[in-house]
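Consider the subject:
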Amino acid sequence: MDHTRLSQHAWDFLSHKLFGSDNAWITPPQKLFLWNSKGIYIDYYYPNPDTKHYVGGEQLLGKRITTVLPQPMAKGVQTMVFQTLDIQQALVEYYELTIEQQLYRVAVRFLPFENNVLGLVNDYVHLEQGGTSVVRSRVVRRKKKQVQ
């Protein structure tokens, strides 16, 4: 990889700057991901280590979004990474993801960060769904909005 991972201190500093007392109205993310211009995971951070995740930790590093996430979510996230880099503005995307009969609504805020994209992720759990234990996803809606 051509990227040096951010230290715990750097992630804490960044989180404090983005979500500290001056920005208390912004929901802090449950997960932070850093993708390069090719849509490859180059870093991650879970502010709360007990946070549940689809695939997490070291397993992500060096992998493409499209090999980690289920379709069409993977294609949507990858597209948003490319678009964020292209327009150099923050974007927001919403997804639904069903894992083991549990429906999650996922909000991802995409922010340009140096020559990479920072993904700020919040999951919202919904009532259990019937059916088999399959992983599926869909894009709920796309909203272009500047995240402050």
In short: Confidence is low (pLDDT under 50) at residues 127-137. The chain has one domain: 8-143. The chain has three helices and six strands.
